[in-house]
Every structure is written in C-alpha cells, then in structure tokens.
Protein: Serpin
Amino acid sequence: MSQQQFSQAVFSKIIANKPNDNVVISPYSIFIALLMTAAGAKSDTLQEMLSALCVQDQNKQNADVPLVLEKIASTKSVSSANAIFASKDINLLEEYKKVVSEQFKSEIEQKEYYFSDSTKSTNEVNDWVKDKTQGLIKSIVDNIDPKTALILVNAIYFKASWEKQFDKSLTKRSDFRLIGNSEKINVEMMFKYNKKVLYGENDNTKWVRLPYVGGELNSIFILPKSDDCSSSSLQETCEFVLSCLGEGNLSSKLRTSDVELTTLQIPRHKVEYEEDLVPVMKQLGMIKAFGSADLSGIGEGPADLSISKIVHKAVVMVDEQGTEAAAVTAVAVTLACFVNKPVYNFICDRPFLHVIEHSETGTVLFMAKVMKPDSKEK
Structure:
C-alpha cells in the first residue's frame, strides 16, 4: 500500500534528522495534501511527486481516496477535511476543481483579498484549521506572502476511547529513563496489572495493540525488547517498524495474540511537533516542484506556479480514557519568480514508538517517536 510506504519514507527521514527529539506526524495528512497538489502537476514535476509519494498509478490512487475517507469517517472517531484557498489572480481549471472537490472532498475558497490582505487571509486560514482540529492546532500559517497563489490544506482530528480503559486510580508518578540510561524524568504513568492484552514480540522488539471502542482503530506501542535503553536498541526497533511499513504490511508483521501481562505501563503524555517538510521532500527526490515546476494543471496565472512551503503540525495526547490527536499539512504555492507459561510485561519506561492505524485500510493516521514524554495532566 503506497500510503504505508510513504509513511516509512517520510518518517525515516524525519527521525534521522532529529535523532534525540520527540517526533509526531500524520503521514495520512501529508500524503493527502501532497496528493491533492500532485493532481495539478504535469511532466517531470508530476513524476517526481508521485515517486516521492510512492504512488505508481495516480488515477487509481485518487479514485481510492474517497473510499478511504469514507471508511475512516465511518469510525466516528476521525474527521478529515481538505481546503484550497486561492488568489483571484489564479484561474483554477475546471478539471482540477472537479478532481479536488469530488475525489478529495475539498472546499474551494477564492476571495478578492486572498492574499493581498495578509492579516485577514492568514486569520481566515488559521480559523479554518482551528475549527477542523477542535482547537488542538490553532494556526498553520504566519503572515502569508501576498505573492502566494494558493494554499492547499489537509486537517485531521482524532478522538477515541480505549476499548478497555486504564483505571485512573492506579496512575502514579514514576520514572521514565532517557536514552543511555544516564538520566530519568518523572512522569504520570498509567498501569494495568494481570490483564489480557494483544501482545507480540520478535527477537529484538515487542509491542502491544490497544484497540479503541469499535475495534476499527488501534494504537500500537512498540518497545525494544532489550531493557538497556540504548540508542542502538531503539534504532533496531525503528528499522524493524520502518521495514514493515516499507513492505506495506504493518498489521501482518506486527501480529498479536491475547496474552496476560503481569504489568502494562504506559506514560500519560502529550507530544507536539512542527516540521518544514520542504527539505524532507527534497531528500525523497521531489525537486522540480520547488523551482522550475509544472503545476499548470492547477490553473493559469500571471506567472508559473511552484511550491514555496510545506508546513506540518501534529499533536497526540494519550491518557487513561483514550487518545486525542490532530494534524495539519499546508502546501503554499506561489507565483515563481508458549511451552511453559512465561511472564510478560510491557513497561514503557523508556523511549518508544507509537502508531495509530485504521485496521481495514491499513492507513497510518499518526506516527510518533517518544524520547521524552511531556506528562499530560488532567
């Protein structure tokens, strides 16, 4: 599945650039925003974008988008919205408007003051973002350049309760060990004792799959099997998860069975992240879109169009009741210039990975690498 392969590609580049930082992204949001942009790309620009997105058949991928959107929306826990804010200087092509409105269900806004009135335009885009993410993300653009031709935005909001919630009375302050085991921080740690949990492991990695109400959405928490808290152990775990995504079969690789855990321990936390995706996408081979681009399938204007910015923000909050998360991606286009019963534990007291996925479609909604959790107070 191209979306899982893209998740692997973009997440691997970001965590390689930020080895010691918390990272959380929505591969889904980035994928949709760029796919919507690619719908107006042509020639080499299009080929580079599709290659970076791991898409082999653009028509099929675009046709699949509304089906995936519908399945994800049917969970009632996920809402996703797309919008295009376009300058009056751009004559959007009817074919492009048809594709983005029918297949991507995108709103299209085109007003006289886009984007000559920078303050008013900026506030309007950010108000849309705040509304679609239920206030979790308050802004995505800052002082929009009046030369901007259009801004394409995807927003995703997620809120779901655990199928089996954590008992809040068991939550207590506990140590979380940082990489190298040389330092500890104190966090609010959630506990379950002697409970059956969907658990899996291999020689180097272990994971638990915690379903949300309805069973269509899951969180997967992933730890190195080694307790040494070393960067090499975490790297090995990251490489394993990324290889599963690269093969497009995360769920089948991370198989689980119902196992009674003596202790399940996960920090209550909030992770936020912001990334300028232009360098990342260039690393993935998307070059022409930022310079001598052919985005003529979007519309006609006084000059050629090219991408100037790709901004991504994401936040994930985990507590005893469930998970709340949101992400926004904005693409700014400007005028160029068993034998014996073993004892199983899953103790997240050291850096870990976190994936939120939609089971049926395999869509990766959020991915996080948590190095130093910010404990979320209720």
The CA atoms of residues 12 and 242 lie 7 Å apart. The mean pLDDT is 92. The chain has two domains: 2-160+270-335, 161-269+340-375.
